[in-house]
Amino acid sequence: MGADTSVGRRLLIENVRIFDGVSEHLSDGHVLIEGRTIAAVESSPISAGDDDVVIDGAGRTLMPGMTDAHVHLVGMANTVIDLVMGSQTQLAAATLAKAKDTLLRGFTTVRDMAGDTAGIRKVIDAQPELGPRIYPSQAAISQTGGHGDFSFVYERPTALGGNESRAEQIGFMRVADGPERVLAAVREQLKLGAAQIKLMVGGGAASLYDPLYTVQFTAAELRAAVQAAEDYGTYVATHVYNVTGIRRAVEAGVKSIEHGHLADEATIAMLAERGVWLSTQPFAEHDHGFLNPDSAAKNKEICAGTDQLYRWATKHGVKVAWGTDLLFEPDRDALQSDMMTRLGEYMTNAQALKMVTSGNAELFRLAGERDPYRAARLGEIRCGAWADVLLVNGDPLADLGLLGKPEDNLCLIVKDGVIVKNNLERAA
Q1: What's the gap between Cα 232 and its chain centre?
Q2: pLDDT band at residue 208, thresholds of 50, 70 and 90?
Q3: The CA-based dihedral angle spanning residues 342, 344, 350, 352, taken in that order and rounded to the nearest 10 degrees
Q4: Dihedral sign of CA atoms 353, 279, 320, 231 in order
Q5: pLDDT tens-digit profile of 73-121?
Q6: How far is Cα 311 from Cα 320, in angstroms, rounded to an integer?
Q7: Is the pLDDT score of 426 beyond 90?
């Protein structure tokens, strides 16, 4: 590990090739970090003070920390059995432990799309080396029988007087029916610290009761959610794969479509026309393992749409964000790095790197006043930006696969101005 820069010492990273998160080319330069932000980016050498920590990059590539626009930190860190049987203390502890692994893969910021992570965010913000910055959604909101309804079939819905499911009890999901209950559910998540709101608007692979073609939440329910979120200065993102659900969500004012793999070309073109984000994932069948044959079949259908989804989004100029959506298999969370490098199959390396740095950060800023990190820029190396940077052995613009092996190729990780990992010797 490197020297402690959290007590006022400046960090100077010299002799690096800089990918700034915006340009498609590298530039030679030097970067000075002071406190939590980048103080200078210069092509000429920067004079070091006596107390500065100086690192010679020796021609390596300095880039912004990567971001993941669709994670479930609680779901990544815990199995289904853990969620059902474990205490909330156990779930939170496991989540915090796995958050550090995410950071060590070079992901310095994530948008969490279901799970009780607002409290974990506060812990990490106080000790940046513990994990990535988090944009929490808190509980994802589902209708009865929808994608987020993890109750058993023999249990009575809460709308009909039944008890909360375990997923609701631990703050992973919230089931709400009708505009009034949806309003209450959205306001509940905002009260708990949500940066943005997540609703389930169509069927999914992991759920038991809803085929992929189903459309969930009425237009009135969706409009109620959007109004409640906008009244708090933020936005609604929706889980949905199918055409009807996507179009209903967009008409209601939703700003981000999560997934979208079963859309047709006309619907993808509509997203571009309306300025709606497509926050999607380069899914392959092996990314998720399902014992349930129905879920496995749904997963296969979803993954079959990956190639054309990216092709149409590129053709029509849709604003695309990247995420992973890994769940319930903690021993496979390293797939996060693999799924990032897979972007190289659908776009240039430069486009992929911009997407996972400044691109995702643009989506995150839709949280407005709810954005916990609005005080500075994310995903860029520029003066005044958050000091979240990675030093890479080699050139990821030429070989995106370097980032698929973070343990070997990320020799320096800095987050919030704190050195999290340093495999280099300090020059001063």
Answers
A1: 21
A2: confident
A3: -40
A4: negative
A5: 999 999 999 999 999 999 999 999 999 999 999 999 999 999 999 999 9
A6: 11
A7: no
- Do residues 142 and 150 lie in contact, with contact meaning Cβ atoms separated by under 8 Å? no
CA distances to 102, 172, 409 from 77, in Å: 10, 13, 24
For the 66-346 domain, the top CATH level (class) is: alpha beta
**Contact of 417 with 423, CB cutoff 8 Å:** no
Write down the domain spans for the chain.
11-65+378-422, 66-346
The three-state DSSP-derived secondary structure of the chain is CCCCCCCCCCEEEEEEEECCCCCCCCEEEEEEEECCEEEEEECCCCCCCCCCEEEECCCCEEEECEEEEEECHHHHHCCHHHHHHCCHHHHHHHHHHHHHHHHHCCEEEEEECCECCHHHHHHHHHCHHHCCEEEECECEEECCCCCCCCCCCCCCCHHHCCCCCHHHHCCCEEECCCHHHHHHHHHHHHHHCCCCEEEECECCCCCCCCCCCCECCCHHHHHHHHHHHHHCCCCEEEEECCHHHHHHHHHHCCCEEEECCCCCHHHHHHHHHHCCEEEECCCCHHHCCCCCHHHHHHHHHHHHCHHHHHHHHHHHCCCEEECCCCCCCHHHCCHHHHHHHHHHHCCCHHHHHHHHHHHHHHHHHHHHHHCCCCCCCCCCCCCCCECCEEEECCCCCCCHHHHHCHHHHEEEEEECCEEEEECCCCCC
CB 296 within 8 A of CB 252: no
Res 218 pLDDT > 90: yes
Cα gap 129→419, rounded to integer Å? 8
pLDDT band per the 50, 70, 90 thresholds, residue 425: low
Residue type, 242: N
* Superfamily of domain 11-65+378-422, CATH level 4: Urease, subunit C, domain 1 (2.30.40.10)
Check if 11-65+378-422 and 66-346 are the same fold. Answer: no
Q: What is the pLDDT of residues 6-21, one digit of tens each?
A: 456 899 999 999 999 9
